[in-house]
Amino acid sequence: MKLTKLSPKILTLLALALLVIIAPMFFPSSFYYRIGALIFINGLAVIGLVILVGYAGQISLGHAGFVGIGAYSCALAPEHLGISPVLAVFLGAFLSGLLAWLVGRPILRLRGHYLAVATLGFGILIYMVLSNEAQWTGGPDGMAVQATGLKALLKSMGFKVSASEMWYWIAAVVMMIGALIALNLHTSPTGRALRSLHDSEVAAGTVGVNVANYKLSAFVISAIYTSVSGSELALMNRFISPDVAGFLHSVELLTMTVLGGAATVFGAVIGAAILTSLPQVLTVLHDFEHIVLGLIMMLVMIFMREGLVPSLAKILRRRPK
Amino acid sequence: MTLLTVEDLSIEFGGLKAVDGVNFNVEAGKIVSVIGPNGAGKTTLFNMLSGLYTPSRGRVTLAGKDVTNQPPYKLARLGMSRTFQNLQIFLQMSVLENVMAGCHLTEGRHIVTDLLGLPASGRRTRQSMKDALGLLERIGLQSHATDEASGLSYGALKRLEIARALAVRPQLLLLDEPAAGCNAVETEEIDHLIAEIAAEGVAILLVEHDMKLVMKISDHVIVLDQGMKITEGLPTEVAQNPKVIEAYLGVKATEEVHNALG
Ligand SMILES: Nc1ncnc2c1ncn2[C@@H]1O[C@H](COP(=O)(O)OP(=O)(O)O)[C@@H](O)[C@H]1O
Ligand SMILES: [Mg+2]
Predict the structure, then answer these.
(1) Which of A122, A146, A223, B85 has the most CB atoms in a 10 Å sphere around its CB?
(2) Gap between the Cα atoms of B172 and B204, Å rounded
(3) What's the DSSP call for residue B143?
(4) Ligand nearest to the CA of B35
(5) Nearest chain B residue to A197, by CA
(6) Nearest ligand to residue B86 Cα
(7) B176 C-alpha to center of ligand 2: Å?
(8) How are the residues of chain B apportioned to helix, strand and coil, as percentages rounded to the nearest 5?
(9) Helix A64-80 to helix A85-107 angle, to the nearest 10 degrees?
């Protein structure tokens, strides 16, 4: 079978699976498993943003708020409600989805800059609540998160893995599921409706797309993705602070989305991989680390406006066979 | 049967009466043209009919239902679709996907099925693909199905918008200058296409500057000038109305009309 005969969905999933399986062969130490896990956790959130930004053409500068809700659900629910940390992931996802649905209704009437500012406000609000309600959240210092018991369970079954290694595989599987869902969506009737309002809300309406409802759906779906990534972060780190819900994290996630190519799932993972690992690599540059990072981002945006993956794909396609 | 009734429809933009007290009917399966000089309010009229602008006065009735102030997506459900003078193509989709996007109403809203990629999701997509390919064939773009829409010529994009609007399976189709910017051959093709669509029982409301086209295919012509309807009637009647000749057609265009009518 020729590779080009495969659908983009299968190709993307194959490429991601290969990446996940092959990368550990090059890990010099178990520390790299942790970075890998972080990449996949961020990758999941960015795939959610691809649905919102890349498919539906809406913007959010507040999605880290949902990371915060997912993370603190896993920190608070086991302690106060007595449910298991793993179940708390679903609780967080439900709460994030519900909140996105409530907030999205009024906010998504706005467009462009106005939407950006409104979502920014929403994110800041969540951050403020998390850092001010110190009796619940431990305030700006953060709080510890109960162990999932997964590692102990694995051990009792005879598997001895490090926590980093275990989270590498968990985050990879969760991200692959997220990728599969986003890829299903892309070529589905719902996906076409979302992508139609990305290109022309006016035309989308005249073919029968309920524009407000579909925007809201994209907002809720992306909130759930982001929330799950926050939950994973909390459970892996066994500790959480309000910074995960902060403005900088929202910007970081959005930058990953745009850098990789806002409309593609594969681009999402590449964007997450670059912006998660590059700071680690660039530490050798000491003080120049942030300058180089900023420069790379500017250059990509100037010369590859569609993002890394779509632009490179175009260049490859243009090459004579 | 009267499909569309427009009564006293009006809109103002900061004091400018862009459309002012316009009345007319469209019968099922007929081609009704709206003509008038640039800025007469034709596109604005279309924008009100299709729910993009809110009229300041008046009423629109579609198939017996009062649809004034209804949002576009509800009008689509009631059987109205349209094309745009300034193209509104889904530029990040393929040619085929543009038409498939027009199949939204037959596909229905099944978000969870689509997220999970259940077989029903694929079935709906394949059905839309089949319908869309049929429509592409009709407008002669089947060989471009997988091309990016952004790569098509202007004339092809105009036809693509018609195919997308037809995918909605309308009873009433609004075409805003479908032949603008098209060469003679393309205009001829669009002319045939419109006649064919009408023959299938779809009512067409047409805005077009090509007088030859208008006079040839219209059952009824409405003339707008400065937001007001100055007359309406059969193409031959309208062409001979002195008010129309003065307000719009001018000497050169009048000749064109007479040539067109033979
Ligand atoms: N959204 C708008 N805001 C302000 N003025 C408008 C708007 N839309 C149309 N107009 C004005 O209404 C008048 C009619 O425009 P239009 O309907 O586009 O004319 P036509 O399609 O007949 O050439 C013009 O004077 C135009 O400038
Ligand atoms: Mg116009």
Answers:
(1) A223
(2) 6
(3) G
(4) 1
(5) B90
(6) 2
(7) 7
(8) 45, 25, 30
(9) 140
Q: Which of A50, A190, A317, A318 to mutate to test the interface with B (most CBs of B within 10 A)?
A: A190
pLDDT digits (tens, 9 = 90+) for A148-165: 888 888 888 888 888 899
Rounded-to-integer distance, Cα B208 and Cα B214, Å: 7
- The confidence score (pLDDT) of residue B245 equals 77
d(CA B203, CA B3): 8
The label of the residue with tokens 């307000």 reads B247
Q: Which domains does chain B have, with CATH numbers?
A: 1-79+173-262 (3.40.50.300), 86-169 (3.40.50.300)
Residue in the structure block whose two tokens are 């983009």: A8
Q: Do B84 and A202 touch (CB under 8 A)?
A: yes
Flag whether residue B97 sits within 8 Å of chain A, measured between CB atoms: yes
Of all protein residues, whose CA lies closest to atom 27 belonging to ligand 1? B39
CATH code 1.10.3470 for A3-318: yes
Give, in order, the Cα–Cα distances in Å from A315 to each of A222, A308, A309, A318: 30, 11, 10, 5
A125 to chain B, any CB pair closer than 8 A? The answer is no
What ipTM was assigned to the predicted interfaces of this complex?
Answer: 0.90
DSSP string, chain B: -EEEEEEEEEEEETTEEEEEEEEEEEETT-EEEEE-STTSSHHHHHHHHTTSS--SEEEEEETTEE-TT--HHHHHHTTEEE--SS----TTSBHHHHHHHTTHHHH---HHHHHHT-HHHHHHHHHHHHHHHHHHHHTT-GGGTTSBGGGS-HHHHHHHHHHHHHHT--SEEEEESTTTT--HHHHHHHHHHHHHHHHTT-EEEEE-S-HHHHHHH-SEEEEEETTEEEEEE-HHHHHH-HHHIIIIIHHHHHHHHHHHT-
Using alpha carbons, select from A308, A303, A216, A313 the residue that is nearest to residue A262.
A308
Contact yes or no for B98/B150 (Cβ under 8 A): no
Residues near A69 by Cβ (< 8 Å), separated by ≥ 6?
Answer: A92, A95, A96, A99, A126, A227, A230, A245
Nearest CA to ligand 1 atom 10: B18
Helix axes A31-49, A265-281, angle to 10 degrees: 140
Quick: pLDDT tens for B102-143: 999 999 999 999 999 999 999 999 999 999 999 999 999 999
